[in-house]
Write a structure and sequence with these properties.
Blueprint: E1 2-5, E2 14-20, H1 22-27, E3 33-40, E4 46-48, E5 62-64, E6 67-74, E7 80-89, E8 95-103
Parallel strand pairs: 1-8
Antiparallel strand pairs: 2-6, 3-7, 4-6, 5-6, 7-8
């Protein structure tokens, strides 16, 4: 699992978080993503931009080619949120996870 720390998010921002899986897929001879789910490690105060709370069932977000992304809103200043994206390749043979850290701060 790979973790990346991103630029801070203000609690009032609605931001897109994207993971590019192209190199991972190509290295394994895969070309597409069959499914994608997202989960927040500390969901208090964080919402997915469709208005659903991060405490509910994991959303699929969006798949665009070999990228996955999700829109996030809310959050509490001073909290670092970990968003983990899990994908299954089109062949169904491989599953990958990548975690991004989204620091939330008042700007």
């Amino acid at each position: 699992m790979i973790t990346n720390i991103l630029e801070p998010k203000d609690p009032t921002d609605v931001k897109e978080y994207r993971i590019k899986w192209g190199q991972v897929l190509a290295a394994e001879g895969e070309s597409a993503i069959a499914s994608s789910t997202w989960a927040a490690s500390d969901p208090d105060g964080l919402d997915y931009a469709d208005g659903s709370p991060a405490t509910g069932s994991p959303p699929s977000g969006y798949i665009e080619g070999t990228d996955t992304y999700i829109f996030v809103s809310g959050g509490t200043a001073g909290v670092n949120y970990e968003l983990t994206n899990t994908i299954v390749t089109a062949s169904g043979l491989r599953t990958h996870q990548r975690t991004i850290v989204v620091p939330c701060c008042q700007r």
